[in-house]
Amino acid sequence: MNPATISEQLSNASSVPIDVITAIEASRSPIVISHIVPDADALGSMLAVALGWTDKGRIVKASIPESSLSQKLTFMRDHAGVPIATKNDFERADAFIVLDTARKDRCNVGAELRESDWSRGRPIINIDHHATNTRFGNVNWIVDHASSSCELAYLLLRHAERPITPMAASLLYAGTLTDTLGFSLPTTSPDALRAAADLVEIGADVADLGERLFRSHKQSEFDLLRVIYANTKRVGAGRIAYSSASYDEIHNAGCKASDIDDQITVPRSLDGVQLAMLFSEGRPGKTRINFRGSGTVTVLKLAQQFGGGGHAQAAGAILDCGLQEAIDRVIPKAVEFLNDAGNS
Question: How many domains does the chain have?
């Protein structure tokens, strides 16, 4: 990307608040955090920011509890080489940089810390692209029309004149690529594509990322996909498709709750489907629902009926009940929702 194009993009990013940069610069031992069960966008944005702000006067660590990370994305953590924060690091931290997380109670800090006031009045810098973000930070930068938090992290690093190494570029590219579903969703803006082009020019390894993210299933992940395909059903005159995986089905496949996410693409891929859902019982008596809308159908308000949140066409919720009860509760509401005037 030529300098003029970068300058033009940065000038369009004048909304990057100076107090975000100032707050990060003022820290010396910050911890970067994303949401529970981090996806590629969450991991890419937090790890790239950690790499960009680590220097002689500052050590940035990342909160990634082991059980929260999917098999597919462990390579991002391992390749980045960012130190993983311990409980003692949380005690010593002087700031928290939270990315891609809509609510404080969704921060991926581990069950023990989540039950406590882990920030204890220390600054939280909240950077996100979820429309339902609660502005829980001391400093908030929320851009709900951005393609991804990785796009925001890219702009932040550029605006702050922090380094973007080839490794960081790969991390940011991975998040932008996956959150736009291969640059195929309506959120794929010219700014997102310009950022992606710049990241490739910096050194993002497009071929390796494509292989790891889309063409490298472990046997356990493949076996879980068999379950998702087998359990896929259509309702609502064929306009709604959903699938499910029980606790036993997930664990018998050799997977865990953190391995559930991308499988929503299975029911979503059926021709004519406008609303897709994936029900997964990652823990007994706790069912997560992924919602996806196609075309003009939005799903955020549907997810909010069940205490969830997210984006207009990609949202989620968690119900404190078993798998079948969750299906029985949500499906009628989904059919009713799609039949409403706004989604018919």
Answer: 2
